[in-house]
Amino acid sequence: MDMLQATADPGALIRRVGALIDAGRYGAAGPLLAAARQLNGQTPELNLLAAHLAEGQGQIAQARSEYDAAIETAPDLADLRKQRSSFCHRLGDFECAARDAAEAVLLQPTDPDAKALLGSALLSLGRAREARACLAEASAADPANPAIREALAIATEADGDPDAAFAILRSGLSSAGGALNLRNAAILFCIRHQDFATGIALAEDGRVAGTVDACLFGLKGHAQTSLGQHEAAADSYAEALKLGPDDPYVRHLVAASGLLPGARRAPPDYLRAVFDGYAPRFDEHLIGLGYQIPGAIRRVALEYLDGTGACGPVLDLGCGTGLVGVAIADLPIGPMTGIDVSSRMLAEAEAKDLYASLHEADAIDWLAEDTGRWGLIVAGDMVCYFGALEPLLRGIKLRLAPDGWFVFSVEASDGVDWALLRQGRYAHSKAYLADSLRSADLAVRSIHKQVIRFEAGAPVKGFLVVAQPAPAIH
Description:
Layout: H1 2-7, H2 10-22, H3 26-40, H4 44-56, H5 60-73, H6 78-91, H7 94-107, H8 112-124, H9 128-141, H10 146-158, H11 162-175, H12 180-192, H13 196-209, H14 214-226, H15 230-243, H16 248-257, H17 268-278, H18 282-288, H19 293-304, E1 314-317, H20 323-328, E2 336-340, H21 343-351, E3 357-360, H22 363-369, E4 374-379, H23 390-399, E5 400-412, E6 418-420, E7 426-428, H24 430-439, E8 442-455, E9 458-469
Parallel strand pairs: 1-2, 1-4, 2-3, 4-5, 5-7
Antiparallel strand pairs: 5-9, 6-7, 8-9
Helix pairs in contact: 2-3, 2-4, 3-4, 4-5, 5-6, 6-7, 6-8, 7-8, 8-9, 8-10, 9-10, 10-11, 11-12, 12-13, 12-14, 13-14, 14-15, 14-16, 15-16, 16-17, 22-23
C-alpha cells in the first residue's frame, strides 16, 4: 500500500524512503528506493538516500560509491560535500573528510557546520592549532551550538591551552545551561585534571537545574570516589543506574561501587570513553604518579629474552600512548604492533613513531581474529581492566609463538581471586594468577611483587607476571 500511494507523488515517495531509513527500517526502504529511481532516474538526492541505506546495512563500499556518484553529478552542492565528509570521518578517512569539508567551506564560507566539520577533521589529523582556529570561527557564527563549543574546547586543550578549554566549556554553560552534553564534558574535564571538587559542583548545579542524565550522575560518582566520598558516590551511582540501566559506562562504575555484582571485565565503551579524554595528558599524569611498569617490563626483557633481549615480533596490548614501547624500543625485539580501544591514545602512540602498526580494537576480539605468532606479548596495566582472566589468557596462548613470552602487570587483591575496585580497575591474587595461567596452558616463569605507581603518596601494590606456553607433554 505504501508503494501504491507514494508512487502517485514522486516527492512523497522520496520523503517516505527517507523516513524509513531514519527509522532503521532498511528492508522496507529498499524496494521504495528502487521505485523512486525508476520514476526519477539517478539524482543526487536519491544517491544520498542510497548511501544512507547502504551504510545502515553495513555495505560501506556501496555507500562510498553512492556518495561519490552524488558529488560527481552535483559537485557544487555544499550539503553533499558535508555529508560525505561526515561519512569519511566515521570511516577514519580523515584526509578525505578534511578535503570535502574544505570544499564545503569554499562553497558556503559563512556556514558554521562546514567549518565545524573541517575543524573536527583537522583535529583528527593531529593539526590542533588549525582545528582550533576553524572551530573558533564556527562557534562565533553559531555560539548557541553546544556540539561545536565542545569540539572547540577539545581542540583548544589539544593545542596546549587547558585553561582556555575549560573556560570555553564554562562560558557555554552560562549561556546554554540546559546543554547537558556540554555540562558532562565540563565535569569529565575536571575529572581528567583531578579537580574533583569542581566537577562535583558542576554536577550538583545540573541536578538543581533539572538537566541530568545517567552520565552526569556516573561522572559525579566517579569524582566523589576519587575524593574518598564513597557513600555519596554510591548514591550518585544509584541515580545513574535508574536513568541508564543499560549504559556500559554507568554499569561498570556502579559495579565498582558495589551496587551491582562484579562485572567480569570493563566494557570497551567504558575504556574508550575514559581514555579518549585522558590521552593528551596521559604520559604526564602517569609519570607524575611514579609509574613503574614500563621500566619493569624492560628489566624482564633484558633478564629473560635470550640473555640479549633478542625476541620478536612484539605485540603491545593496551599500548595506550606507547609508554612501554618507549621503554623497550632500543632493544632488539621489534617490530612492535600496538592495540588499544582508544583512538586518541593511539594517536599519541603514533606520534612517537615506535610502532610498525597500530590498531583500534578490543584485545580479546583482536586476538581471536589475528593469525600471527608473537615472540613477545606485553600488557602494561591493561589486564587490570579484566576481572576473570581466562578468556583473555586463552587468546594470548593462541597467539604466542611456542617459545614466546607474555609479560603483564596487575594490581594485587587482598586474598580474593579478583575484585573490582572503586576506581573501575580490577585487582587479582597471586594464587588466581597462577591458576588461570595454568588453565590457559601457560607456564608461570615468575610472579613478582611490583609497585605499580603511587597515589596520594602511597604505593599501589601489584604483580609483574612472566609466562610462556606450557611445554607439550609427549
